[in-house]
Design a protein that fits this description.
With 550 residues, the chain is an alpha/beta fold. 39% of the residues lie in helices and 17% in strands. It contains 21 helices and 20 strands.
């Protein structure tokens, strides 16, 4: 006989879970008790949003569901931001939520929430375990659903009286792996469509990738002589130094790459979704008239034709398809097309000077040239991230953790999760002053568990992205975008970490080396000129465009 919390934890052990992220609550005390003697590390976080984002980042890094525990009501509400990231980023993740006792249901009890209704449109599956005897069944199903087809988040509610009840029930083993495979006919159909194209463009993205798949993608691109682009924040799917890599399609994309997408007569989409970010709000390709042949390979049948009708749609693992295509003889007719795409990428990489004594473009180029090839770079959302996307060259798979959902505050908890998963690797978080303040309380978590991440805070005293849109649409009418900031270096030291303030570009390398050598969670604050609004335009230039449009 075991209580429900013990049964639950034993199932997690069976599933290979080594670490969970939590903010404790009285609604799942039995689960906490189950974790007490388990060979599972329980990372206690400072906010449920941070815990959920750490779990999501773990799912991205490992390909297996990251796991978080939060309490009912406000705890689950706080965690919903991480669930949304997992949904839009196709990341396997499981969120366990404490719930009211079953005999209190439907009386608007203390912190009562219907989690099936609340998470029904955000999670891949949301349910509640009402019988202690069925915990192994529900957990097994959760892991199956989270990792199958298009991966995603699962939310399971745990009534507190169910967890504290006891039962004699057998454990269930981890889901049996489904042997992946792509038929010869499917690979031949893709190859045949490609061979007919004059201006093909490969777009490789989505989740379920690994280092071997990234190597196969490079091999495929090289043997066929094809340009490869990646979707928003999937830049680590191919070594950016490879001559066939053409850049990323997403927010802040190279306009010339966008034009190349527009001019392509065929796109081969491997594992990615085709939506607004990829097509610049459907300006470059419209679902009603894309103007090109679309070959779409995706592991989930529901994604094929969801927005763009494919001329050839194949339900398959993009990783397996890429490997099959890499081994397929190629006509290789597109070398000039691929070389031109690469030249445009190289030109886009040349730093455009921004105003101020600290220049983000130079900082990012230094990082790109000096951090180890396997360093993990994380970020949240904001104009500061565009500098990272444009100027940093990702060298290997698993080195980029960033939310395709555009969630602020993501970078710092993601960096903590990455450091815990890979303690020997350099982990760098790039955050804006607005972005960092959303989750900087997790500095305490980093200090408690020895996660020596290096956080670079781009401080321009404003919500830069919104200010940019504000100046374009309502030039000169600044409202709700100004920020007051703490002394970030002093704050880091208050948490027991290392703090630096950089006011000149040339001082950054030494500051970074000191932060790395400290062996502590470190913060390097960059004091930026507010005029340095984006990679392409200053604040004044942006306002002038807005005034001209008005």
């Amino acid at each position: 006989m075991r209580h429900g919390g013990q049964i639950l934890v034993d199932q997690l052990v069976r599933q290979g879970v080594r670490r969970v992220f939590s903010v404790p609550g009285e609604s799942f005390l039995a689960a906490l008790d189950g974790l007490h003697d388990a060979d599972i590390q329980n990372i206690v976080c400072r906010h449920e949003g941070g815990a959920a984002m750490m779990a999501e980042a773990t799912g991205k890094l490992t390909g297996r569901p990251g796991v978080a525990f939060v309490t009912r009501g406000p705890g689950a509400s706080n965690a919903s931001s991480g669930v949304h990231v997992a949904k839009q980023d196709s990341t396997p993740m499981i969120l366990f939520v404490g719930q009211i006792a079953r005999d209190h249901r439907d009386r608007e009890a203390f912190q009562e929430v219907d989690y099936r209704a609340v998470f029904g449109t955000v999670a891949k599956w949301a349910s509640e375990i009402d019988q202690v005897e069925r915990i192994p069944e529900y957990v097994s199903r959760a892991f199956h659903i989270s990792t199958s087809g298009r991966p995603g988040p699962v939310v399971l509610a745990l009534p507190e009286d169910m967890l504290s009840s006891s039962a004699e029930v057998p454990d269930l083993p981890a889901p049996a792996p489904v042997p992946p495979g792509v038929s010869a006919a499917e690979a031949a159909a893709v190859a045949k469509a490609l061979a007919k194209a004059e201006r093909p463009l490969v777009i490789a993205g989505g989740s379920r990738w690994n280092a071997g798949a990234a190597a196969d993608l490079a091999r495929f691109a090289e043997s066929w002589g094809l340009p490869v682009a990646v979707p928003f924040r999937r830049q680590d799917h191919m070594d950016n130094r490879h001559p066939n890599y053409a850049g990323d399609l997403g927010v802040g994309m190279n306009p010339k790459l966008g034009k190349r997408l527009q001019d392509a007569d065929l796109i081969l989409v491997l594992g990615a979704r085709i939506g607004d970010n990829l097509t610049r709000g459907y300006e470059l390709m419209h679902p009603a008239d894309p103007g090109k042949t679309i070959v779409h390979v995706h592991p989930d049948a529901s994604e094929l034709g969801r927005v763009f009708r494919p001329d050839l749609g194949i339900v398959a693992d993009a990783v397996e398809m890429t490997a099959a295509l890499a081994d397929t003889p190629a006509p290789r007719r597109w070398d000039d097309w691929a070389k031109a795409a690469r030249a445009e990428y190289e030109a886009w990489q040349q730093p455009k000077e921004t105003p101020g004594a600290v220049r983000m473009e130079q900082v990012i180029r230094w990082l790109s040239d000096n951090v180890p090839d396997d360093a993990v770079l994380t970020n949240g959302a904001g104009n500061y991230a565009a500098f990272l996307h444009r100027y940093f060259r990702y060298k290997g798979y698993g080195t980029q953790l960033a939310p395709t959902s555009g969630s602020m505050g993501y970078g710092f908890p993601a960096a903590i999760a990455a450091k815990l998963e890979n303690p020997g690797r350099t982990v760098v978080c790039l955050a804006g002053d607005g972005c960092f303040q959303m989750t900087l309380n997790e500095m305490s978590t980093a200090a408690q568990y020895g996660a020596a991440v290096i956080t670079i805070v781009a401080n321009n005293g404003q919500y830069g992205t919104i200010r940019m849109h504000q100046e374009r649409n309502f030039p000169g009418r600044v409202s709700g975008t100004q920020l007051a900031n703490p002394d970030y270096a002093a704050l880091a030291r208050a948490y027991g970490g290392h703090g630096e303030t950089v006011e000149r570009t040339e001082d950054f390398p030494a500051a970074f080396e000191r932060a790395r050598a400290s062996g502590l969670p470190a913060v390097i604050e960059l004091r930026l000129d507010p005029e340095a609004l984006s990679t392409s335009l200053t604040l004044s230039e942006t306002r002038a465009i807005g005034l001209k449009g008005a």
